[in-house]
Amino acid sequence: MIITEKGLIKINSYNEIVNLDEYQKFNCVLFTKSFFLENITKISSQKKNGLLLNSDDKIEDISQHIIIFSLINVRFLNFKDGRPFSIARDLREIFSYKNEIRASGQILPDQLIFLLKCGFNSVEIDKTKKDTWLNIFKTDSRQDYQR
Amino acid sequence: MAKKLKANIFVYSANDLISGDVVFYSEQNGWVRDFISAKRIMKEELEKFQEKVSAELKQNNIINPYLVELDDDGKITKLRERIRFKGINIKDFKNV
Amino acid sequence: MYRYDEFDSKLVINRVKQFTKQIKRRISGDLTEDEFKPLRLMNGLYLQLHAYMLRVAIPYGELSSKQLKMLAYISKKYDRGYGHFTTRQNIQFNWPKLIDIPKILRNLAKVEMHAIQTSGNCIRNVTADHLAGLLPEEIEDPRPWCEIIRKWSTFHPEFSFLPRKFKIAVIGCNEDRAGILVHDIGIKIIKRKEIGFQIFVGGGQGRSPFIAKKISDFVSKKNLLTYLEAILNIYNSLGRRDNIYKARIKILVNELGIEHFKKLVEDRFKLLKQKKTALKGIEIDKIKNYFKLPSLETVGKINPEFPKNPNFEKWLKFNTLNHKVKGYKIVLVSLKSKNYPPGDMDYKQMIHLAELAEKYSFGEIRVTHEQNLVIPHIKITDLFEVWKILDSITLATPNIGLLTDSICCPGMDYCALATARSIPIAQKITNFFEAKKKQDEIGPLKIKISGCINACGHHHVGNIGILGLDKNGQEFYQITLGGSSKENASIGKIIGSSFSSSEIIPAIDKILDVYLEKRDNKNQTFIQTLEQIGLKPFQEALYDNN
Ligand code: SF4
Q: Distance, CA C110 to ligand 1 centroid (Å)?
């Protein structure tokens, strides 16, 4: 289940895959950076390709390929590890990535506004905490000093 | 809190979630402010009480529970714990 | 002084509302302590040895009478009637209850104060020279720059979950009174063709102390925030997160080497250069306008005759400085009296001092990183009157910059992390040396005391540093000599094995005797003497006859 930047709750349509067979099977796929680098020639631009990054993954070495991804999903290893905030901002501001960026993993609802401001479009959330997320989406202030 | 525990007798201490006050675990009345009512826990019973306190933690009444070591006469061994138990005020420092 | 506009006020109020909800969620159990902790820390709320502790920011040390009165009110109503000024221009309340925090924060917001980012792994309260805007030799007032940095760093979406805390200090004079070389980033205003900034990075104290290294010799005003953003981005991406003791930027800078680190930052800076963080002259001027000197009327008698009073004369000598406007003095208020722990102030003192500043100094007060206060603009002809009032509330101890004006952290009396007490040591020093009347003869000297290796009492940079240790359950104290947080910043050297709490005062006394005996003349400082004669004579005096 995901919450979008518009405050909508949606179902995640990406299938996390680990091998080429699975890659062929689905039309909307999510795979790791190492899967991507190993199978780079077999990636089809006909599919919806989602890249799964961990908070400690670097993006510089695949930056020339990012156009092929319809989604980049950055997974928080721990909510206190703030590297994904920089990853998202780099994707937007340095690498001009225009498609969806999603956050997943261990995240606090209280981080939602910061995530959206850094360029994330959606967050994968725990079903049971849906109401907290929606509430924070509605009530937390978006006011800030940064430009 | 994986420090080595040397003593034979312990009490459980924590802070009250809402007031922040120092509290001790008493068997009958849950978490109390006075040290005298604190349950003296023998080394052999530690595991049992550790489980109890973990369960207590889920009630969200206290935070930061840990074991305070006592000597065999039941006195607190560590200076830090003695200061914590006694409390302190600005006036305590007048003309030391 | 800076005044909130509508935007600032709303921002702070929104934060109070948000944290109030978070507290409710914590009490209801919706948030576990593990999840709540980083949130409460970002709002300045700690759990200390005895209770919660709330740390309130005093941005770049500036405080109004109205604000000080509110601090008095809060300490009386929600705490135990006193507060503690820290080495980072903050004030701490030692006994607030979690349920009272929303009320306290709402009261603070009424006087344009908050506890935002006074803790947690984010950019902390920006500090400045406490004499900013008051001295003739100043290149430019650092306070507007602090305010600009404060705004930029508040709720920064990218930099609120850094590897570790991050401290920035700014100065505008050559003399460094803010310790910029022991900050994560130190900023010094300099004049080349135009006025800009020298940037230092990777300084810090704690377990592994480092003096900051220069990363840029000149950053223009326009690019200041962009440059800071580049540094923070590199730190957030590459700073270590596997080990809390290695997570500060100083470790990253030292592991990579300053040249490599600098290259990463400069590359990044180039990419960011055209970005939105560039500052416009008009915005800078708008902020600067808030910090204009109040209109001080000219004083007729520049050399008034004062009543004969030796205590007053001593105070005049040690606790006042020349103001850049003729006829005025800067008054330093010592929070190092015999009767209070260093940096502590009770609510009555706060009220009286607030009233004094209202009457004599345009309602302005400053907080120093050495845990004292400043009343910035006192007419020379008012000095005696001001002294009498300060003296009546135990705030006229004539010891600024002297031995008994020591910096001291709360130590084991309050702090959950301490390995030994520090306040009683500071007080013993005060009592012992005041009785011996030795400190006037010694002259300026900085003693700094920490209750554990985290070094909140800045012992690494004390001329004489004292570090509290735990040796098999006993309090012991290690002495370092030769530290300084000034322009010539240096980390003190450990003199030898540590001393028990009964041995520490005689040991300090012996060190001072060596200094008095060996210095060439009265003006040779402790540091200069040490450089000249080395550690050895001190070590001989301390250890040889045992
Ligand atoms: S130096 Fe240690 S004892 Fe002192 S305040 Fe800091 S953490 Fe606490």
A: 31
What CATH class does A2-139 carry?
Answer: alpha beta
Per-residue pLDDT, averaged over C382-386, amounts to: 97
- Tell me, what's the pLDDT at C545? 60
**pLDDT over threshold 90, residue C225:** yes
Per-residue pLDDT at C127 exceeds 70:
yes
Measure the CA–CA gap between A29 and A51, rounded to whole angstroms: 8
> C98 and B88 in contact by Cβ < 8 A?
no
pLDDT of the residue at B96: 44
Q: How far apart are CA C344 and CA C410, in angstroms?
A: 10
Query: What's the CA gap between C448 and C332, in Å, rounded?
Result: 19
Residues on chain C touching B90 (C-beta within 8 angstroms): 80-82, 340-341, 344, 346
The superfamily CATH assigns to domain C134-289 is Sulfite Reductase Hemoprotein, domain 1 (3.30.413.10)
A80, A108, A118: residue with CB nearest C158: A118
Which of C39, C155, C158 faces A85 most closely, judged by CB atoms? C158
Neighbouring C-beta atoms of residue C89, cutoff 10 Å: 26
Q: Mean pLDDT over residues C258-274, rounded?
A: 93
DSSP E strands in C172-322: the ranges are 185-191, 195-201, 213-220, 320-322
Locate the domains of chain C by residue range.
1-116+307-399, 134-289, 407-543
Predicted pLDDT of residue C82: 95
Is any Cβ of chain A less than 8 angstroms from the Cβ of C5?
no
Tell me the backbone φ, ψ of residue C430, rounded to 5 degrees: -60, -50
Is residue B2 scored above 60 in pLDDT? no
Which residue is listed with tokens 């005096």? C541
Confidence category of residue B3, pLDDT binned at 50, 70, 90: low
Q: Kindly state the helix (H) or strand (E) to which residue C45 belongs, with its residue range.
A: strand C45-47
* Homologous superfamily of the C407-543 domain (CATH): Sulfite Reductase Hemoprotein, domain 1 (3.30.413.10)
DSSP letters, C477-520, are EEEEES-B-STT-BPPEE-SS-EETTTHHHHHHHHHHHHHHH-S
Is the CA virtual torsion A18, A3, C276, C283 positive or negative?
A: negative
Give the whole-angstrom CA distance, residue C415 versus residue C413. 6
A80 closest CB neighbour out of C38, C156, C237: C38
Alpha-carbon distance of C284 to C142, in angstroms, equals 12
- The yes/no answer on whether domain C1-116+307-399 falls in CATH 3.90.480.20 is yes
Distance CA C422, CA C468 (A): 7
Q: According to the model, what pLDDT value does residue C299 have?
A: 80
CB B20 within 8 A of CB C96: yes
Question: How far, in Å, CA of A52 to CA of A35, rounded?
Answer: 10
Question: What pTM, to 2 d.p., does this model score?
Answer: 0.95
Q: Span C91-112, mean pLDDT?
A: 97
The 3-state DSSP class for residue C77 equals helix
pLDDT band at C90 (very low <50, low <70, confident <90, very high): very high
Chain C partners within 8 Å of A90 (Cβ): 233
Question: How many residues would you count in chain A?
Answer: 147
The single residue listed with the structure tokens 């200069």 is C528
Which amino acid is it at B95?
N
pLDDT of residue B65: 96
- Residue C466 CB less than 6 A away from ligand 1: no
% of residues, chain C, pLDDT over 90: 93
Q: How far is the centre of ligand 1, averaged over its atoms, from the C-alpha of C411 (Å)? A: 5
ipTM: 0.95
Specify the DSSP element, H or E, that contains C226. helix C224-238
The alpha carbons of chain C give a radius of gyration, in whole angstroms, of 23
Tell me if C374 CB under 6 Å of ligand 1: no
> How confident is the model over C415-469, as pLDDT tens digits?
999 999 999 999 999 999 988 888 888 999 999 999 999 999 999 999 999 999 9
For chain A, domain boundaries: 2-139
